[in-house]
C-alpha cells in the first residue's frame, strides 16, 4: 500500500478528473497502465514467490505507457504531484480497489 499522503492526493486529483467526461478515458488509461506496471514490475520485484516479471524492453514499454497516460492528463490540466512510478502506480491501484 502506498503512503496515506500519496493515496489521499491521488484519490482527490483523480476524483476531480473523473468529473469531466473528457478526462474519464485518460484516467482509465492511467489506471490500466498503472495496474499493469504494479502487477508486472513492482510486485514481482518485491515477491519471494516465483511469478512473471516484465523486464528489459517489456518493463520499459509498460513504464512508458504510464508516463504517456500521466502526460496526457497533465496536458489537460490535471496536476499530480510527481512521485516515483512505484508509489504512483500503487496509489492508483489503491484508489480503484
Task: Kindly describe this structure.
With 97 residues, the chain is mainly α. It has one domain (4-95). 70% of the residues lie in helices and 0% in strands. The chain has helices spanning 4-17, 24-46, 56-75, 85-95. Helix 1 packs across helix 4, helix 2 runs antiparallel to helix 3 and helix 2 packs across helix 4. The longest helix is centred in the middle third of the chain and has 23 residues, at 24-46. The termini are close together. The model has no long low-confidence stretch (mean pLDDT 84).
What are the key terms here?
0% strand, globular, mainly alpha, 97 residues
The average pLDDT value, as a whole number, equals: 84
Structural category is: mainly alpha
Q: Give the overall shape, derived from the CA principal axes.
A: globular
Low-confidence stretches: none
**N-to-C series of helices and strands:** HHHH
Rounded to an integer in angstroms, the radius of gyration calculated over CA atoms is 13 Å
Overall domain count: 1
Largest sheet: none
Distance between the termini: 11 Å
Instruction: State the helicity in percent bands.
Output: over 70%
Q: Could you give the count of β-strands?
A: 0
Helices, by number, come to 4
Q: Roughly what fraction of the amino acids lie in strands?
A: under 5%
